[in-house]
Amino acid sequence: MPTILAPVPLGGRLWDWSRTCVFGVVNVTPDSFYDGGRHVEPAQAVEHGLALAEAGADVIDVGGESTRPGSTPVPETEELNRVLPVIEGLVTAGCPAPISVDTYKARVAREAVAAGASVINDISGLRLDRGMAQAAAETGATVVLGHLRGAPATMQTGIHFRDVVREVADELRDSVREAVRAGVPAGRIWVDPGIGFGKTAEQSLALLRATGQLREAVGYPIMVGPSRKSFIGAVTDEPAGQRLMGTCAAVAAVVLAGADAVRIHDVAELGPAVRVADALRRGARR
To answer: Known catalytic residue: 263?
Structure first.
C-alpha cells in the first residue's frame, strides 16, 4: 500500500486521505458496552450525530445492535426500527457528514443505504450473512470489512490464534476477495482488524502495534476502533466510562502506526489527539 492513497468515494465526495478519517459512533441501543441507552430515542440519536459532525466527525456510524461480547442478537425488524429513523433524521437535518450503518445483516444494510447511508460497516467481514457481499455490491456503498470469528455472543469463548497478526491479515484478505467477487469495486473497500472482537487484550494490543504491517499485508485502507474497549481496561484497570485517556493513547498510537481511519465515541475530546498524531505522521497542516 503506498503512503498516499488514491482518492476514493465517501458519500457524495472524494476522500483524499490527506488526514485520518474519523468515524463518530451513534449507538441506538439499550445495551452497548459504553453508551447503551443514551441515544435510544431517534431524536436523541439524531442530535448526537449532528453534534459529532459539528465536533469534526467525517462519518457518522449508526448502529442498532450491540455487538459487545456476550450480546444477544437483535431481530432485523427491531434493528431497522432503531436505525432507519435516525438515518432519515440525519439526512433531513442536513447532516454534513456521510452516514455509515454498523450492521452485519444484508437487509438492514440495503434499507439503510436506501434511507441515506453511504457506508456499510460489517464487523463480521461478510461472514454472518452470506447476502451481505451482494448487498454491498448492489447498493454501491463503501464497505468496511471487519475481522470476527464466530458471533458476538460467543466470540470470547475458546479464543485461539497461533499468530494473531498473520491470521487476521489472511482472513481480512479472504473477506476482500469475497467482496470483489461479488462486484464491490476495490476503491470502495476498507478493512478493520476487529480490536476486541474475539481477541484477548494481549492479542488486541498486538494488532494495534501491527497496524502498519496489517495495512501493508492486506493492501487496503485500514480503520481501527479502539474506543474505550476492554483491552484498555486490562491495562489501566478502569471501567469503560473512565477509559478516555487510554483511548486517547491508543488512537494516537494507531494513527502514527498507519491507520487511515479511526472509529471513536469521543470526537470532540479526541479530535486534537488525532490532529497532532496526523501532524507528526504526515507533516503539519492548518
So the answer is: yes
User: Could you tell me if 204 and 246 are in contact, meaning their C-beta atoms sit under 8 angstroms apart?
Assistant: no
How far apart are the C-alpha atoms of 39 and 45, rounded to whole Å? Answer: 5
Grouped pLDDT means (10 residues each) for the chain, 286 residues: 71 92 93 56 94 98 84 88 97 98 98 98 96 98 94 77 97 98 97 94 97 96 96 95 96 97 97 97 68
* Domain extent at residue 70: 19-280
Q: What is the CA radius of gyration of the chain?
A: 17
Count of the separate structural domains present in the chain = 1
Interatomic CA distance for residues 50 and 46, integer angstroms: 6
Does the pTM surpass 0.90? The reply is: yes
What CATH number does residue 29 fall under?
3.20.20.20
- Among residues 188, 229, 243, 275, the one annotated as catalytic is 229
Residue 181 annotated in active site: no
The catalytically annotated residue of 82, 149, 243, 263 is 263
Q: Is residue 23 part of a domain?
A: yes
